[in-house]
Write a structure and sequence with these properties.
Blueprint: H1 4-17, H2 30-39, H3 45-58, H4 62-66, H5 70-76, H6 83-100, H7 109-112, H8 120-131, H9 140-148, H10 158-168, H11 174-187, H12 206-216
Helix pairs in contact: 1-11, 2-8, 5-6, 9-11
Length: about 220
C-alpha cells in the first residue's frame, strides 16, 4: 500500500498530466447536472452530451419532464443504455423535487440520495461540481486507478475506496483529485490497454510493474 507521501506524489503527477481536469458532462445548472449524471450510468459522457444537447433544450424544469408521457421521454433518450429505467427515474426524481424540495436540487448528500436514480456517486458529483462541496465520487476510473496504484486494496468496496481516499487526501483537494483520477483512468490508465510503458507513475504502480514484467518474459 502506498504511503501518504507516495499518494501525494501520484496526485501531483496527475495534476501535471491533466491540469484542467473537470466534469465533462455538459450542464448549465445543478438540475441539468443531476439529469446528466443519472444518464451517464453505464454510458460514456460523450454520448450523454450528444443526447442532452437536445434534451436540455426541450426540458428546462422538473415540470417539463412530467408534462410528457413516459414513452416520449424514453424516445428522447433512446440512444442511451437503460433508457426505459432512466426515463422512469427522471420523472420520479422530478416529482420528488417538486413535492419535497420546492423544485430545487437539494444541497446535502442525504437529501440527494432520496431522489430516484441518485446513488452515493451521483450525489457526490453533484455536491462537488454543482455546489463546490468537498466530495470524492468513486466511479469505475477512480476505483481502478486507486486499486492499481495500491492506494486501496483489491478487495475494497466502492465505499471503502471512497473512505480511504477521504482519509489519505486533504479535504480541500477532494474535488480536484476526483477529476484528475478520472482523467488519468479514462485517458491513460485505461481498463484494457493502460499505457504502462510511458507511465510516469510506473515506479510506484504495483499493477504496472506486473504488466511490464510479463511483457519482458
Amino acid at each position: 500500500m502506498l504511503t501518504k507521501k507516495q499518494i501525494n506524489e501520484c496526485l501531483c503527477v496527475m495534476e501535471d498530466m491533466f491540469p484542467n481536469a473537470e466534469c465533462e458532462l455538459t450542464h448549465s445548472n445543478p438540475f441539468e447536472l443531476v439529469i446528466a449524471v443519472l444518464l451517464s450510468a453505464q454510458c460514456t459522457d460523450v454520448l450523454v452530451n450528444k443526447v442532452t444537447k437536445d434534451l436540455f433544450n426541450k426540458y428546462k424544469t422538473p415540470e417539463d419532464y412530467l408534462a410528457v408521457p413516459l414513452e416520449e421521454l424514453q424516445a428522447d433518450i433512446r440512444s442511451i443504455g437503460l433508457n426505459r429505467t432512466k426515463a422512469k427515474n427522471i420523472q420520479k426524481l422530478c416529482h420528488s423535487l417538486l413535492s419535497d424540495f420546492e423544485g430545487i436540487v437539494p444541497h446535502t448528500r442525504e437529501e440527494l440520495m432520496t431522489l430516484a436514480g441518485v446513488g452515493r456517486k451521483t450525489a457526490n458529483v453533484v455536491l462537488s461540481v454543482a455546489f463546490n462541496e468537498p466530495a470524492i465520487a468513486v466511479d469505475t476510473h477512480v476505483e481502478r486507478v486507486s486499486k492499481r496504484l495500491a492506494i486501496c486494496r483489491w478487495k475494497d468496496s466502492v465505499l471503502e475506496v471512497e473512505e480511504t481516499l477521504m482519509k489519505k487526501v486533504p479535504k480541500e483537494a477532494w474535488g480536484a483529485t476526483h477529476h484528475r483520477m478520472i482523467f488519468f483512468g479514462r485517458y491513460h490508465c485505461k481498463a484494457r490497454n493502460p499505457e504502462c510503458p510511458q507511465c510516469p507513475l510506473l515506479n510506484l504502480c504495483r499493477e504496472g510493474k506486473k504488466r511490464m514484467k510479463k511483457l519482458t518474459q
